[in-house]
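User: I'm putting together notes for a lab meeting next week and I want to include a structural view of one of the chains we've been expressing. I don't have a solved structure, so I'd like a prediction I can at least talk through. The sequence is below, exactly as it appears in our construct file.
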Amino acid sequence: MNIDIREALADAERALATGDRAAAARAFVDAGDHAVRYQLWRSAARSFRSALELDLVARDVVAKLVGLRHLRAAADWLDYQDALDAHPDWPHVSCLRAQVLIDDRGAYVDCGMRVLRLAMTSDDHVEAQPEARFAEIPLAMALVVLRRAMWPNAREQALQPMRLRISYSNRPTVWLDELGDWEPV
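Assistant: Thanks for the context. Below is the predicted structure for the 185-residue chain, given as structure tokens.
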């Protein structure tokens, strides 16, 4: 990884440690911009997704992901952008502390509010449905949230990242890995 990217990511982590989410988001975007400049597309996408975890409705960050059109998931980011345009009333939600909770109503992902309902149908398969308030969240948003809920401390240097099959709201099933990348099954 390039030194500029590493420094920006370190700035983001320091900002998060002090609770300054705005500075952290700016630093993650800076890291993504550096990665784009060096044509490190996966690093750019991961940096931008890290910024997005701080505010799931950050239109400027989604626009940067849409700008990475050669990514395998480019259409998913366009859907995300369209969903944000169609729902300007969606609340600003961070999934930084997303967690899977289970109670008498079932399993769900909570980000300060319930976002997704979950069912684990096998050891490596999760079915997810949006909560009513978020009925139209796109696949990419759901996967950003699920990645953070399933792997809050992802192993960045993992040779073989852990992954799960995710079925989301009548969409084709995808493999989601702990680094936040996904691909069709």
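A couple of points you could mention at the meeting. Residues 3-74 form a domain with the Serine Threonine Protein Phosphatase 5, Tetratricopeptide repeat fold (CATH 1.25.40). Residues 21-37 form the longest helix (17 residues).

User: Perfect, that's what I needed.
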